[in-house]
Fold this sequence. Notes:
By secondary structure, this protein is of the alpha/beta class. 37% of the residues lie in helices and 21% in strands.
Amino acid sequence: MACHITGNYDVNRNTTLPDDDFSLVQDWVNALIDLQLQGIVFHNNFSESTCAAHQNAFVSFVRVDYDPQFNPNVFRYLVYRDFLRAHAQEIESLFVTDVSDVVALNNPFVQPLFLAHPEALFCGDEPKRLHDPWMREHATHLRGKIADYAVYEAEFAESTLLNCGIIGGNIAVMQELVENLAFIHETHNRDNQTAYTGDMGAFNYVARTAFQGRLLHGAPVNTVFKSYEQNRRDCWFRHK
């Protein structure tokens, strides 16, 4: 699953995305078709004709009402929470990913590592540590809101920086994660006035405090972040 929200300033791209530009999600969609995986794109501004033209046996489009008090990076977890509350019984396992810079390279659900670890949270990562200058700035708002956030930062300062652009696992794991993230964003991130979205901060906090010991990240889950390894095919997902 993925979200594509437009009409709001994108702080990561320093622009406002156009409403009906399907090229932004084309690679994501094509990869699922090639792998014959089921996917959903939640969106707020694709036209009916665009959805009709690209809907197929594998990928569907679900329109959502975007709440602009939340940054799109944060709002997606509220969308996922509501969808999973209604449809969890129909889902065995899932991944939620970024839609414009992540593509599936292999079916993750048939991989021996995935099948051997039903308790695990699988996610992307970066060749950085949590105690990274950008990450410290990113977490400024949540640090002032969550009582033990600074303690968690100190404890896991030298741990690998996890990336929420790729997150997956079985339905029980994913529903637990999404409920936790949605709660943080609704409770603590609604009034975030900083230049940072808080999605990476919330994800690393929840992953390290609630899922530590059952985290699996890096190869073969994801390629090296921002290395643009276009010819690499051994991982489940490529992230830039």
